[in-house]
Amino acid sequence: MASINPLSNPKGVQLLCELCKKPAYLQCTRCRVAYYCSSEHQRIDYVGIHEKICQLLIPLRQTGEPFLQSEEERENRRLALLTRKQHMIDLTRTTGQKLLFQGSFTEAVPAALQSLAFSIDVYGLTSVELVPSYLILGEASIGLGRLEQAEEYLSQAQWTVLKSIDCGNFFKSRLYRILGLLYSTKGDYDEALRNFADDVFHASEEFGTDDIRTSGGYYHMANVFWKLEQPETANSLYQHVTEIWAGHLRRMVKIRLQTPATPKGVGPEGSDNGVEKQLDEMLDEAQEAEAVQVLSHIYNQRRDDTDTKADVMMLICHCLAMLRNIQRIDVESLAFAREARGYAETITGNQGKRLVTDVIEFASMLEPYKPPTPVAGDETDVIGAA
């Protein structure tokens, strides 16, 4: 970091801290377009988002316009900058969500602030596209115990949603989910459940009832019922969440293992018609972090409950085995697969037989290959037979 003197700034230029918007005294020496009031704010921003976007900020914050002779050149430049800003919105938003699922609430704030700034620049102050950024800031504030600040962010998000006539179910689902988290943290469980139910409704309208983007509402409802000491209801919801993730992860594993189709020709007719569908099945960084957080929590709940049945433990272990396999964390994947197989081998009868078979086959597939031990004399016999 390089020190700067605010008094030496050109007239009319005020350099502000990326996090708190106070006068800046430090400058990033790599990009030279990011400024901070202290080394602590620089550290938080670097860990939270700046490490990812340092070089990406340079073309977006450079002062002075290049001389472009034609209207076409100016339009092409404008569109290129717009594309860069939209990419920054997606990147910072996804990173913020990922950090929330990892419990890194302080580090999620810089990502959300960058997402909010670029969203305002691209869409304006009243656009519904600002809502995800407000929600990340709200959830981070809840995690940090700053409930009044969380209420301010959520009020802004709620006002934007209500004011927008074209607000989709996705934004409403996310809003009700974070409101549910706020009420749950405050101990108002009835209001929390009402908001989580609204979350599930709007997510189901947008994605379907058995989509991983809907499962978050079920998961948070289960957590509330667990706090209310209603384990039967909570466990039923945890199982539904596990089944949703199991179906999605199974499709992802299948995509990883299948042989790519050979194109039949050039152009759209020769392309793989399933590519778009396969891409929809992939997890972004935030969804991957959500899967780890949700499934690990359910696994710990199940393992600590002595009444958990073998088929229930088998499924959650199988989910974690598939997830770690997709993440290429082979040691953990094999460990969970072996644990799932252990439960599967205790299950008798025909109920869930297909799943038991899948679990055992998946575990066997992950086992490291061990060549058969040659029997003494085999080589001589073969040579002699020849």
Account of the protein in words:
- By secondary structure, the protein is mainly α.
- It is 67% helix and 2% strand.
- The chain contains 16 helices and 3 strands.
- The protein has helices at 39-53, 58-61, 71-101, 105-123, 131-143, 147-163, 169-186, 189-207, 212-227, 231-257, 275-281, 285-304, 310-326, 330-344, 353-366, 378-385, and strands spanning 2-3, 26-27, 35-36.
- It has a 3-stranded antiparallel beta sheet with strand order 1-2-3.
- Helix 5 (131-143) runs parallel beside helix 7 (169-186), helix 7 runs antiparallel to helix 8 (189-207) and helix 7 (169-186) packs parallel to helix 9 (212-227).
- The chain is globular.
- The model is unreliable at 266-271 and 380-386 (pLDDT under 50).
Defining key terms:
disordered C terminus, mainly alpha, 386 residues, 3 strands, 16 helices
